[in-house]
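INTERNAL AUDIT FORM
Audit reference: QA-55
Scope: verify that the stored structure record matches its stored sequence.
Auditor: D.O.
Record contents follow.
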Amino acid sequence: MTVVIPCYNSSATIAAAVTSALAQTIPVDVIVVDDGSSDDTVSKARELANANNRLTLLVQPGNQGPSAARNRAIAAAKTSWIAILDADDYMHPDRIRRLLEAARRFNLDFVADDLIRVSPGLAPETGTRLWSDNPIGMLKLDLARFARENIATRTGMRRELGFIKPLIRMEFLAEKAIRYNEQMRLGEDYDLYARALQAGAHFAIIDPCGYYSVDYPNSLSRSYGANQIRHLVNTDQMILQDANLSKQARAAVQEHKSFVLKDWAWVSMIEAVRTRNPLGMARSLATPPMVSWTTAIRCVRHVMGKTPIDDILINAPQAQLVETLLGHALPADRSHT
């Protein structure tokens, strides 16, 4: 098992992420890939690597994005499974063991736990589940279900399944020649998971095993340009070209594409207005009628001084005790909780 930790200017959090990976109840290798940090992330990671021979530090020649960093680690990994850990998150010590047991028990290629969102600090008392506030046991995902569970108007804002961090079987990635799309800095997880499901991956999600996703005060302020959103649209368009898609998968991916295309058109319009680019404005409206209509309504709302896009308030997450969130293991795991 290899835990992959891509990082960029993660000086304040890299030690906690690495320490949580090395503290797993089963032996794991850890590969940290620095993506051209300008702070002292590299020196901190190198100090950790010098103290533990299970930790390897790789340094990118410049900032190439999270997909390139992950792909470099995948190429360097020598184990049958990998797990992705973001450098500002951390894990419960027994998380990898639980996930690996589920993967083997159900013959899975991908297995993820419903992650736990927490406030900064290493001993959170409460947190919220990403996707489901209630126990789910083991839920197998197909492409149709996965695509629909990445539409915020269905799941609630920031509760989309694209945020999950599964264990991934390396042999499957090799057999299907699947890697992260290095052009993408937004939605790269959705892209890889969707293509894996299209290729026939056995993919399941289970109850939380202890992936702690830390919500920092500025974590919602990051914005992306229209070009990055367009890559996500292109992912759906590529999948829709597959003549073998089921009727259900095709409808779900089309629905997801339409949802993302609305965001692309709106951001594209904003960029065109800021740069006084009439051609860009026209392009943002040269979309299917429902998309162009949504863009027009957002423009009118903006002119009227209203919020162009209403907050999606459905399915707000419920705060729960962390010990409760970790208590819904699969039956075979209960003696270890």
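Auditor finding: record pair retrieved intact. The first strand starts at residue 2 and ends at 7.
Action required: none
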